[in-house]
Design brief:
single chain, alpha/beta, Aconitase, domain 4, seven-stranded mixed sheet, 31% helix, 20% strand
Length: 160
């Protein structure tokens, strides 16, 4: 179960808005996290708390295929992103780095600042007394997320 405060963003939040290209000459993920979402909300990185959840509209993560975008979100403390839809490559990159994504057409009904609870196994979310359903994540993706991403998941399977 994931529980956190909701941060709202709109449609078509691209990877350059998640972490601007001007910071990509720095390979320190904690440094990138200090700039996450700053072109949409300059105070986001300083106010987001570990376990908070981003809720967005359609096509979240569109744009380039940079893995730094989901890495910066995860490092900033974002526990999950719930959106009406995701860019396909962003979705896969997020799973690979251990960032939880939930696709929900009901995402637009979740208010900024509300407390959101997400049960990935049952496919149920609840915010302010409103229960919403989504397609539960397959066990294979849950295993990768629970391991912390694809690399830790692979390491656990290849080491004696």
């Amino acid at each position: 179960m994931i529980r956190g405060k909701v941060w709202r963003f709109g449609d078509h939040v691209n990877t350059d808005l998640i972490i601007a290209g001007r910071y990509l000459d720095n390979y320190d993920i904690s440094s990138l996290a200090s700039h996450v979402m700053e072109d949409l909300d300059p105070d986001f990185a300083s106010r987001v708390q570990k376990g908070d959840i981003i809720v967005a509209g359609r096509n979240f993560g569109c744009g380039s295929s940079r893995e730094q975008a989901p890495l910066a979100l995860r490092e900033a403390g974002v526990a999950a992103v719930v959106a009406e839809s995701f860019s396909r490559i962003f979705y896969r990159n997020s799973i690979n780095v251990g960032l939880v994504l939930v696709t929900s057409p009901e995402a637009s009904s979740i208010a900024e600042g509300s407390e959101l609870a997400i049960d990935l196994r049952s496919g149920v979310m609840e915010a302010e007394g409103q229960e919403m359903s989504f397609a539960p994540l397959p066990d294979s993706l849950l295993e990768i997320l629970e391991a912390g991403g694809l690399v830790p998941w692979m390491r656990a399977r290849t080491r004696p």
